[in-house]
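Supplementary Methods S3. Input chains for the assembly prediction are listed below.
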Amino acid sequence: MKAFTVSKAVTVLLLAGLVLLPLYSQLSGDIFILTLFTRIIILALAAASLNLIMGFGGMMSFGHAAYLGIGGYAVGMLAQEGVGSGFIQFPVALAASAIFALVIGALSLRTRGVYFIMITLAFAQMAYYVASGLARYGGDDGLTIYKRSDFSGLIDLGNRVEFFYLCLACLFGGIFLIWRIVNSRFGLVVQGLRSNEQRMQAIGFPAKRYQLVCFVISGTMCGLAGALLANNTDFVSPAVMYWTRSGDLMVMVILGGMGTLIGPVMGAVVFLLLEEFLSQITEYWALIMGPLLLLIVLFGRGGIMGMLGRAGRG
Amino acid sequence: MAEPLLRVEKLVRRFGGIIATDNVSLDVAAGELHAIIGPNGAGKTTLISQLTGHLSPHSGSVLLGGRDITYLPAYRRCALGLARSFQITSLLLDFTAADNVALAAQAHAGTSFRFFANARKERGLRDAAHAALDRVGLGHRADVVVNRLSHGERRELELAVALASRPKLLLLDEPMAGLGVTESQRMVKLLQELRKEVSIVLVEHDMPAVFALADRISVLVYGRVIASGDPAAIRQNEDVKRAYLGDQHVVTHHG
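Predicted structure tokens for the full assembly:
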């Protein structure tokens, strides 16, 4: 039982900290920390969505950043064309991500293992090059979004605190949804398929359709993160879809603990804070970051959540 | 004569130049325990794989309750009442025993595209799982993760998983493989109970077990059925004796 409490205590602390962060920012006058954590929360949502297919579903997608771009471009392109309403932009972002996930999922899930990793990577790179070719929408240079999504007075995305809480609500909502899904009938089937596909087929489950639906849910959720991210930076460019970004998301998931609910959030916080502070110390921050991550992955099986569990057990 | 539960007609499967299944025909009547025996390399597993849908035949047909299932995928056959156990134990190792069985029950209890309600709290599924576990004597191990079960327990769990789908026909691929003497005896006893409820096709190397259990036996040699009949007839059959020359004493000495 004690193991349970240590990781639980840290989780509660983390979530409470996130909820209270704007208060701290207000009191200390530190605006930067709010901006930083808004970005962390958005990427935590993306990592959580990746964890749904990677950690729970055993589908090693190496192209998850594509949805960040698709969600972002949906917002950016519509804004460019004069459609500023968030009530249109966000549903379009989600739908576009879902359709993209459906198509690449249907094709990618015909393969397994390394081939699956490579084909998802290839599709994401394809999306990257398509975006680079969109001359009307900035091409390589990206697209500046002059006005954030407009929710007609319901919520003002231009307001830092309101936007922060919107992102946090999306993250909590996403994690709640994932929690329900992984314990549902559907979730058990998906996890069973990760564990032993042959067995699941033999007891009567057609693997692909369950995996595909899971893939689409995950992609849609990440598309939401993309739409938020574009609003956060007021900018979207092909770079958000580059394969290294997909790699970052994978690292966050593995770092935090694959197949755990809070792991990806933990991973995103630690990864992005490290990146932030190391890059302030030295230009060669990646030289420190790399070995550090390696150590955690090598010696902390199960990521941070795994380590917390063991720490509790003593 | 009544329609047999399972009818295999002129099944042929080749691997390159080798004919692994050579014009195999056999019937399994409802309520029957039909054993398939044969020396190593006789094509038993190839035949089973075509029955379960893991391998497609080149010609011939497989009928379950009169319905042609020759080219149906494995999961569809399962829905029609065909359940199997694996020669090499194949379970969800990181799930509990109860979860393994409950999933099999879930596959036959409405849609699994339910995303919100906690499946582990579904009364019907849990009850079905515990009933099947009790059936094979694993009731007290329900909440143990499969990783921590012994080999013998895993073989029993395989059976429970197969039973949970309430099959009409159970395909058992060497359920005694790797079991010790006492474990084997328990398994024989268990199968003796189960055969009262469900038709069984049993592929097995353990001859005493086969002769103790089977209503009928088909002998497979080089992909062909060389004899089919009740245990007494098979024991007397000259072709079978010849095929089993080295194992002859095993065929004749028991029961």
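The CA atoms of residues 194 and 200 of chain B lie 9 Å apart. The longest strand of chain B covers residues 18-28.
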